[in-house]
Amino acid sequence: MSSKSFQGTSKYNFMVNNILNLVEFTFQYIINYMDDDGES
Fold it and tell me: What sign has the CA pseudo-torsion 16, 21, 22, 27?
């Protein structure tokens, strides 16, 4: 029971990390795109 709960938490943390990474990547992409757009 204990290990099952831990596994679920681990899975949840992994998913949250993936989402945070995706959000960070998206923001970096948008900022870079806007920078390029403004410079041109």
Answer: positive
Mean pLDDT of 3-23: 87
Side chain identity, residue 2: S
Task: Give the burial class of 39: count Cβ atoms within 10 A of its Cβ; 0-12 exposed, 13-18 middle, 19 or more buried.
Answer: exposed
Query: Which tokens go with 22?
Result: 């995706």
Whether the predicted pLDDT of 40 surpasses 70: no
Average pLDDT of the residues in 1-28: 86
- With tokens 């995706």, the residue in question is 22
CA distance 37 to 31: 10
